[in-house]
Structure formats: structure tokens, C-alpha cells
Design brief:
The protein is of the alpha+beta class. It contains five helices and six strands; from the N terminus they run H-H-H-H-E-E-H-E-E-E-E. It has a four-stranded antiparallel β-sheet with strand order 3-4-5-6.
Length: 213
């Protein structure tokens, strides 16, 4: 099935025009707000395809935060991603990004088909994760590193702290929201407790005093 002559392709080739809604969607798609293009770019709308003359890189894998079993970031045993090959803990839940060509006719979605519709996929990314309320896959999850990036920026700006490492962290389901809490250490050995009650919210950060922690 070939889809190299879509409305998007004709637009790029100067052979057609997108309508206003499509142009708005394209602007969001290639924005840092939605960040779709980081994994789904290039002529095949993924980061796996290559071409003659391209810089050679290894295959790329991503953890989109689909599961967080037991609050540990684990994925179901039968499909855990790149970790099954490398054995590295950091590769838990990491999978290749598929092409988005013909995406409207290739439901269900995600590596395990656990999201039924494109609308639900968009809602999943807009929420920054999901809460699986019960069952064997219960847990509150979000894309790997998304909350740590926000935390790093906040600490750098407000506390002049460069993170040495996160000592511990966990996600907490609060209704339909996903909270995050934990403790970290700065390069200068200061330690801070951090918490937030929902995603995309600023963290409440408290200096961890030796007599208190």
C-alpha cells in the first residue's frame, strides 16, 4: 500500500494546497508544544527511514510512557521493548516509532494495540500519559524524561541547581490526574524533595534538611 501522493505530499511538492484546518494541524504537528515531529519526521513520517547520503545513525527507540507497573516504570512482561535485547534498565518500554503513513487505516495503535482510535492517541499525548486504573497493568504513566526535563528547568532557573541524579521518584494516581513526587541531589550535594499533583504543573520544591529528611 503506497501513500506517497497524499494531500500533504502534494502540498510539499507545490502541487496542491492544504485547507485552513490542515495548516493549523501541520503547525501544531511541527511545533515544540506537540513535538510530534521529533519521532515522526522525514519523508516516511518516522525517524527510522534513511536515504543515500544521510548521516548514518543507529535505530532510535522511544518510551512514550504507556505503562508504569507498580510505580516502577515497568511494562507488561510479554512486551517490554528494547530491554529484552540489551538487558539495560533504561531501555524498558523503548520501541521504534512507526510511520504515520496510512495511519487512519491501521488501528489499533501503540506497540501493543492498547489504544483503539486516533482520537484516543491524541488524548493520550495531550494528557502526557495515562492512568490504568485497575487490572494487571494498573499504574499512572507518562513519557520517559518528560517530567524530569520540566523539573531540571525549574531547578536551574529558581534554585541554581544542576541535577546530579534523582534519588527516587514515583507517580501517583490522583483521580484521572498523574502526580509525581521524589527526591533529587544537585551537583553541589544539596538535596530537594519535589512534588506535583498533576502533569504539566510546576513542582513544589523543598530543600531537604539533614535533620528532616
Amino acid at each position: 500500500m503506497i501513500s506517497g501522493d497524499s494531500r500533504y505530499d502534494r502540498h510539499l511538492a507545490g502541487k496542491g494546497r492544504l485547507n485552513a484546518a490542515e495548516r493549523r494541524g501541520m503547525a501544531i504537528y511541527f511545533s515544540e508544544k506537540a513535538e510530534c515531529f521529533h519521532c515522526h519526521s522525514g519523508y516516511n513520517l518516522n525517524d527510522q527511514a534513511t536515504h543515500v547520503g544521510a548521516r548514518r545513525t543507529g535505530p532510535l527507540f522511544h518510551n512514550t510512557g504507556l505503562y508504569n507497573l507498580g510505580g516502577t516504570g515497568a511494562f507488561p512482561d510479554d512486551n517490554q521493548g528494547l530491554i529484552e535485547v540489551t538487558g539495560r534498565a533504561g531501555d524498558m518500554g523503548a520501541f521504534r516509532a512507526p510511520t504515520l503513513r496510512n495511519i487512519a487505516v491501521t488501528a489499533p495503535y501503540m506497540h501493543d494495540g492498547s489504544i483503539a482510535t486516533l482520537r484516543e492517541v491524541v488524548d493520550f499525548y495531550a494528557a502526557g500519559g495515562r492512568v490504568v486504573a485497575d487490572g494487571p497493568n494498573a499504574g499512572a504513566a507518562e513519557p520517559a524524561d518528560s517530567w524530569t526535563t520540566l523539573l531540571q528547568l525549574q531547578l536551574k532557573d529558581s534554585y541554581s541547581c544542576d541535577i546530579e541524579r534523582v534519588l527516587y521518584s514515583r507517580h501517583v494516581a490522583i483521580g484521572k490526574d498523574i502526580g509525581t513526587e521524589g527526591r533529587l541531589r544537585c551537583l553541589d550535594r544539596r538535596e530537594y524533595d519535589f512534588t506535583r499533583s498533576r502533569q504539566h504543573q510546576k513542582f513544589t520544591i523543598r530543600l531537604c534538611q539533614p535533620t528532616v529528611c
